[in-house]
Each structure stands twice: as structure tokens, then as C-alpha cells.
Design goal:
two-stranded parallel sheet; Methyltransferase; alpha/beta; seven-stranded mixed beta sheet; Rossmann fold; binds S-adenosylmethionine; 204 residues; SAM-dependent_MTases_sf
């Protein structure tokens, strides 16, 4: 692995929310609640991260000048709130989500907010990542199917400067492996780790 840990301080939780972030999060949460109530079949792998903390972490990354460029990708986007928070601050932001019903909902919320983020339907797993099959055996909550989603987006994994993912406990290694294998040097991978908060690594 060629990943360098970047310590995100606890004080990140004291950063003011970005202008418009609270409205975006409230709108998304209302849509998520309505979707959950209306939907008969539970999407087991879909749980939401702490959107407020994610907004603060994105501001911190900007303030620290850690970004090598302007492209953001949310891996396993759900309702695409991460991608929308990134787009709101001027990033060129996309999400990748494998569950079509979530993709539809995410893009409807983005449209209703006039937010430029777009969520693509497909797998975040690019084809032919070496050594991924062994790690995939230990992963239960990520669909490990390979796909051509990046072709549809028109960008490669190494075109993005910041990835965000909310892995299930113990499954962050799967995302780190893809990131390490395919992202460009200097790119960042931010993951939400529940009670442990935000984790950040850079490919070096
Ligand atoms: C824990 S949820 C996180 C949702 C969102 N990122 C958030 O933080 O609120 C993980 C999402 O990843 C999606 N997912 C699982 N495997 C995937 C894959 N191979 N490609 C794209 N999305 C995937 C699931 O359907 C689920 O919506």
C-alpha cells in the first residue's frame, strides 16, 4: 500500500456548516425518510453517514489545501448527499450507486435543489483490479461485481481528486485497495467510520 494517513483533528466538528449545507441535508433527509416509509423492500446495504460531519470534513480539506484538483466521486452514493455537498462548494462531483431506486431518488433530490451532482447507476468496482478477488471474499456489504461505470461517466478512477465512501465496519480495506490500485498519486480517499469519525488517506 502506498497510502499516507492524514490526521483529521477533532476540532473539525466545530467548523461552521457550509452555506446551504443544512438546507441540502434537511431536504435529503426528508426524501430519505419518505423513501424508507414508502418502500416495501429494505435495501440492506443502504445506511446514511453523518452528513453534517461530512460537510465539516470537506470544509477542513479545502481549508488545509489538501486537494490536488476539483473532481469528487462518492463511492456507493446512496442518496448522493456527499456528491451534492461537494458540488455545492464548486467541485465537479459524481456518485456511483448500484441500486437503481437510490440512483433515481438521488438525482431527483439533486435536481430539486438545482445541484449539479449526478449519480450514475452501476458498480464502483472497475474491471481488472489486481488482487481484489481475495479481499472481495471477506466483504459482505459491498457488491463486488466489476462494471464499466467509469466509461459511462467519461472519466477514469485516476481522474478524481477526492473519493468519499461509507464502508461497513471492517470493509474499508476493499475501498482502499481499489483506491491504491487505480487512483492517481496525490488523490485523497475520505471514509466515514461511524463512531471513529472521518478517516483520510492520500495516495503517495
Ligand atoms: C453504507 S451506504 C452509504 C451511502 C452514502 N454514501 C452515505 O454515506 O450516506 C453504501 C451504499 O453503497 C451501495 N453499494 C454497494 N456496493 C456497491 C457497488 N459495488 N457499487 C456502487 N454502489 C454500491 C449500496 O447500495 C449503498 O447504497
Amino acid at each position: 500500500m502506498t497510502l499516507q494517513q492524514i490526521e483529521v483533528p477533532d476540532s473539525v466538528k466545530k467548523i461552521d456548516y457550509h452555506e446551504g449545507a443544512e438546507h441540502l441535508i434537511d431536504t435529503a433527509n426528508e426524501a430519505i425518510e419518505a423513501f424508507m416509509l414508502a418502500d416495501q423492500t429494505v435495501i440492506e446495504n443502504f445506511v446514511t453517514c453523518d452528513f453534517h460531519l461530512l460537510d465539516q470534513a470537506l470544509t477542513w480539506v479545502e481549508e488545509q489545501h489538501l486537494l490536488a484538483g476539483n473532481r469528487f466521486c462518492e463511492w456507493g452514493a446512496g442518496f448522493g448527499v456527499g456528491a451534492m455537498l461537494a458540488a455545492m462548494r464548486g467541485m465537479e462531483a459524481v456518485g456511483i450507486e448500484i441500486e437503481p431506486r437510490l440512483v433515481q431518488e438521488a438525482n431527483a433530490v439533486a435536481q430539486s435543489l438545482g445541484n449539479s451532482a449526478h449519480v450514475y447507476c452501476g458498480s464502483l468496482v472497475p474491471r481488472g483490479v489486481e488482487g481484489l478477488a481475495e479481499i472481495a471474499n471477506e466483504v459482505r456489504n459491498v457488491d463486488t461485481e466489476e462494471d464499466d461505470t467509469y466509461d459511462e461517466i467519461g472519466l477514469n478512477v485516476d481522474d478524481f481528486d477526492l473519493f468519499f465512501a461509507f464502508p461497513w465496519p471492517g470493509e474499508h480495506g476493499f475501498f482502499e485497495h481499489i483506491f491504491d490500485a487505480r487512483a492517481s498519486t496525490g488523490a485523497l480517499l475520505m471514509t466515514y467510520r461511524g463512531r471513529e469519525g472521518i478517516n483520510l488517506v492520500r495516495k503517495v
